[in-house]
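Researcher: Please predict.
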Amino acid sequence: MRLWYENPKCEVNLFPKMPAPIKVLTSLENSAGDRCLDIFVRDDGTFGFEEYRKDPEDQRGWFSLHRYSYQVFVTAEDALGQAKSRVEWMID
């Protein structure tokens, strides 16, 4: 999302792109439906995860929360294991 203020030449990018092209392998959602977690594979064969939130009053969709997507894992299982230890609603 890009916002323009009084000066149209002043551009602020609030939501930078993911670090590399990805393919989402699985998407998990919390019971309230306002948080989700994607496990993905990058073009280079490494894996990662990202947590997102969705606000009911904002119809623009899901927003990244923590920038976990920059972390690199060897397997999807490793990414899921780290997600389960870091994402509050997934902690056992």
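Model: The longest helix spans residues 76-86.
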